[in-house]
Amino acid sequence: MDVTCLKSELFRLLLEKSVCRGTFVLSSGATSDLYVDAKLTTLDPRGAFLVGQIGWEIIKQTRSRLHVNVHAIGGLTMGADPIALSIGVAAYLESMKDEIQTFTVRKAAKEHGRRKQIEGNFSPGEYVVIVDDVVTTGGSTIQAIEAVEKAGGHIAFVLVLVDREEGGKQNIEQRGLEVVPIFTRSDIVGPNVTTRQFTETVPVA
């Protein structure tokens, strides 16, 4: 598999559908000149295929380098959901042995039924990869990490689609976890990169 070509195609799709330049008010009250609406890419069928293939290759390479097994992947709903499922499908299509399972982390536990915060295929004691679409401060990623650890899971490492390079990666790494981004802010704001220009007020985690 030529991951470089797949990554180039995903990059073009991300720029076309998700990366916007302008003036944006973040949830913290700060302003930013960049907004990545990643779900427009991760919920696009071609984008989902590319994210799955690339993400699965990264997981295989990283688990081998770190000498850690990975049982499942997931993260905080809903940014992580399409990424986790796409990677899980890619893994299954390669091995047909249910090699890796997927799960999602609710922002809060359900107040009815089984009252779970983690839904899907997760069991205590497993090593998991936490995924997220965009990391800014790292808050949503850390929320998922804490939920998994509280439920008895172990974090192998963290995989993100875009690291905005605004401190989130460092905040996660302070917990002793490696963060592997597919793309960074530096990738998508280079001098030869053209993105959509407009002004909008949006909340960004």
Description:
The chain has 205 residues and is α/β, with parallel strands linked by helices. The chain has helices spanning 3-17, 39-42, 45-66, 81-95, 139-150, 168-173, 185-188; strands at residues 19-25, 31-36, 72-76, 101-105, 118-120, 127-135, 154-163, 179-184, 196-197. A 6-stranded mixed sheet has the order 5-4-3-6-7-8, with helices on both faces. The chain has a 3-stranded mixed sheet with strand order 2-1-9.
Determine the number of helices (DSSP H or I, runs of at least 4 residues). Answer: 7
Just give the CATH class.
Answer: Alpha Beta
- In CATH, the topology is named Rossmann fold
Please give the number of β-strands: 9
The chain-level structural class is alpha/beta
What number of structural domains do the residues give?
1
In the sheet with the most strands, the strands line up as 5-4-3-6-7-8
Helix content: 25-40%
Major beta-sheet overview: 6 strands, mixed
Shape: globular
**Average pLDDT rating:** 89
Could you say what the CATH architecture is? 3-Layer(aba) Sandwich
Low-confidence sequence ranges = 196-205
